[in-house]
Write a structure and sequence with these properties.
single chain, 5-stranded antiparallel beta sheet, 13% helix, 6-stranded antiparallel beta sheet, SH3 type barrels, 22 strands, 3 domains, mainly beta, endopeptidase fold (from Nostoc punctiforme)
């Protein structure tokens, strides 16, 4: 049995302040300059502890355990009391790939902010087709109710094969982006993270870390022993895992590799991926 599912606790004794991401996708850089490598993304409504300020950036810790720099305009800075208040309010999570918050409850109203899957908002009121929501910086606007769910209800449903098919399928065709963890662009682990965040499970940032979560599953040459939702890991050796995918059953798996798409591990099947078949190392069951 591997490590358990992550439980995010944003409070940190060494933090000098707290930030709440105030834009749809905040790009985390390795260094506090815009040309620096993209190492992660932090989504709207996420509370993060801040440890340093430099060159118009804040050094912070993401909920997936990654450290890096976010630009000042991407964060609403507050203290522990403000962060606690945001976390305690009734909040909604975006379950659609994309959405727009508008200044009035109609499609033609000016946009206030865009949204991606897993963005978190304060849910204020609901009326008809629209609900009023609040951003971390206090701006309010209107959003179609069908795009969000109450965050508190995410953990109330049993994870099923049907849920895995539905959620993974909504991301088909989204392009690959190194460091991407949003529906604007995924890397392999960012895709897996997002799928399971919508199932109320928080996973670590990269494939090597994910490979230690849950229970290791044995399988034979015909993949017997695997079930829909198991995580598949690929690489040259167990010490050099380089890729992760989600098993869908019948030899098929879905992953972010060029785009989010479905391949097969069964020789002769449509979409057979010989390279991934030859480099499959292990499987983990996390629910």
């Amino acid at each position: 049995m591997g490590a358990g599912i992550m439980k995010w606790d944003w409070a940190h004794k060494d933090a000098i302040a707290y930030g709440i991401v105030a834009i749809s996708v905040a790009n985390m850089r390795q260094l506090p300059v815009f040309p620096s490598e993209l190492v992660d993304q932090v989504l709207l409504g996420t509370v993060v502890p801040v440890f340093e300020e430099q060159n118009g950036f804040y050094y912070m810790l993401n909920r997936d355990g990654h450290w890096g720099w976010l630009s000042k305009p991407s964060l609403q800075i507050t203290d522990a009391t403000g962060a606690s208040a945001w976390e305690a309010d009734e909040r909604a999570i975006c379950v659609a790939n994309y959405g727009v918050i508008r200044s009035a409850p109609r499609d033609a109203a000016p946009a206030i902010s865009d949204l991606v899957a897993c963005a978190v908002l304060k849910n204020v009121t609901a009326n008809g087709q629209y609900c009023q929501v609040e951003l971390p910086d206090g701006r309010r606007g209107f959003l179609e109710k069908s795009l969000i769910r109450n965050e508190s209800t995410l953990g109330q449903s049993t994870i099923t094969a049907e849920a895995i098919y539905r959620i993974t399928g909504q991301f088909l065709g989204i392009p690959y982006l190194w460091g991407g963890t949003s529906s604007k662009g995924f890397d392999c682990s960012g895709f897996v993270q997002t799928v399971f965040r919508l199932l109320n499970l928080d996973l670590p940032r990269n494939s090597r870390q994910m490979a230690e979560v849950g229970e290791t599953i044995s399988f034979d040459n015909n993949l017997a022993g695997l079930k829909t939702g198991d995580l598949l890991f690929f690489g040259n050796t167990l010490r050099r895992i380089t890729h992760v995918a989600i098993y869908l059953g019948d030899g098929q798996f879905i992953h972010a590799d060029g785009t989010v798409h479905i391949d097969s591990l069964q020789p002769g099947a449509e979409g057979y991926n010989e390279y991934r078949h030859q480099t499959l190392l292990k499987a983990q069951r996390i629910f």
